Amino acid sequence: MNIPLPDLTPIIPEIIMSIVTCALLTVEVFVKDKTKDFLGIICIGTALAVMYMIPMSQGVTFGGMFISDGYSSYFKFIFLISLILTILISFKFIQREDAEFGEYYSLLMFATAGMMIMASSADLILLYLGLELMALSTYILAGIKRHDTRSNEAALKYFLLGAFSSAILLFGISLTYGLTTSTNIYQIAEHLKQGETSITLLIAMIMIICAFAFKIASAPFHMWAPDVYQGAPTSVTAFFSVGPKAAGFAVIGRVFFIAFESLQMDWTAILIGLAILTMAVGNILAIVQTNMKRMLAYSSIAHAGYALLGIIAGTTEGLNAVMTYLLIYAFMNMGAFAIVILLEKGENIKDYNGLSKSHPLVAAMMLVFMFSLTGIPPTAGFIGKFNIFMAAINAGYTWVVVVAVCFSAISAYYYMRIVMNMFMKPMEAEAKIYPNPANGAALLISLLMVFIIGIMPSVVIGYTFQMFM
Amino acid sequence: MVPLEWYITLSTVIFIIGVIGFLIRRNIIIMLISIELMLNAVNLSLVAFSHYLQDLKGQILVIFVITVAAAEAAIGLAILVSLYRNKAVVHTDKITEMKG
């Protein structure tokens, strides 16, 4: 029997990522170098090469299982940006934290490869495999500080709830397969257009929503996020708050907009509830936090709520707004985490008291990122929120947007509290910082992008869409 | 021939036992076992669907689920072992360093 080789062009970026990562794992054992920095540099190089290759590798392959189109390319761009920024902020930090194992970079690469597969999958089997590749790598990353009990605890909590949610996803996939006789999302859509909806199908869809809501840390499936974000090393936390969240939105967009298109009324109703609950929980609980990483965890929960509004809108405009929002969120959140890493003691919110007196430049940068996270012009965060809210209003969900704006006003309290601590409170102790070129580069990229997107959004967003879509 | 409904009912019951076990037990090993139970319930329903639909995709997914479950168990136990070395507990009520 002659089996023809499938067209490998669309999947070349993932293949390159995986091969380089496996090679790094092997090379790392033999190299007696004291620092592992060269591994990180190779990873950044690979990520840039893959980013350059993505627009050229469009197409469908493996019998319609794997799709590389504009939508997936844009998300892959976000994943690779978050990977590069994470590696840049990791270099000296993981040495300081005593977490410098060679596997660190390989696991980051594997997680990114998993996200890329998720964004490109047009089949629930492939989606599950990509999700597990991402999830298994991130469980280990959370616990990479083996001798630290907090890191262990974070990894364990993440693992238990992650495995639980993927089992729920599988049950949903299994029921969908039984009812529609296929796992391909386009065939599922065809099948659902003809038949009437049954209660079993709704249960299957709700189970899939639950599993994805877990990945984007949406309430009521957010319980893991604060603990994991606090316990994991800060650089890993920065990666968690951007990459897996964007991957979750990528699959939500694909599965709900295509496979469950005929059930739009039902999933919109569920997602409105989730979005409002997520914004409420994220914003209100963030107010009482005293730990910076926990506060940023709740803030990332709240941001998942805003981004869900774009999905609720159910239009192409909404989906584009979500993609833009996630790109902007990647820059501003990575920037905030880069500052937390820059400081010797940045975990406690009290550590920021009087930072503007000892390190005015650092305080000024933090101010920009906090303004951007709040959504104040002329920073990028404003553009992101504006697009999302406009898309939801145009789709007729004005009351949801009103609720979102109210919660957004609440969020100003806890972001501005950091600013107030830095600029208005007296200095308690001279804060020590660890500047290094890589972290500086990450900060500079984030800062520039926050301003460039904020001041001329149409140019940057238009360019990225034109390049990848 | 055994009707499809019986298989699906059985798998749903096993899945719910797994969910309840995960939610109410506080020993991490038991929680891991509950997750395995949930995954195997899914496998059962997938194989049943695959047989009744005369379609191989379900069985392909089962093979993948078994593989991933093995990897997941390996990672879960590794995380548990590293926690046990530092704290010597396998009870979730005792692992409460972070709260809020």
Structural descriptors:
heterodimer; A: 469 residues; mainly alpha; two-stranded antiparallel sheet; 19 helices; 2 strands; B: 100 residues; Helix Hairpins; 78% helix
Whole-number mean pLDDT of chain A: 91
How much helix is in the residues of chain A?
Answer: over 70%
- Supply Rg of chain B: 17 Å
The major β-sheet of chain B equals: none
Strand order of the largest sheet of chain A: 1-2
Beta fraction of chain A: under 5%
CATH architecture of chain B: Orthogonal Bundle
Question: What is the overall silhouette of chain A?
Answer: globular
Q: What is the CATH level 1 assignment of chain B?
A: Mainly Alpha
Q: Based on DSSP secondary structure assignment, what is the total number of beta strands of chain B?
A: 0
Describe this structure in words.
The complex is a heterodimer of chains A (469) and B (100). Chain A is mainly alpha-helical and 469 residues long. Chain A has 19 helices and 2 strands. Chain A has helices spanning 12-30, 37-53, 70-96, 103-120, 124-142, 149-180, 185-194, 199-215, 224-231, 234-259, 264-287, 292-313, 316-342, 355-358, 360-374, 380-394, 398-423, 437-455, 457-468, and strands at residues 59-61, 66-68. Chain A has a two-stranded antiparallel ribbon with strand order 1-2. The model of chain A has no long low-confidence stretch (mean pLDDT 91). Chain B is mainly alpha-helical and 100 residues long. Chain B has one domain: Orthogonal Bundle (Helix Hairpins), CATH 1.10.287.3510. Chain B is built from 3 helices and no strands. Chain B has helices spanning 4-24, 28-53, 57-87. The interface between A and B is large, with 45 and 39 residues.
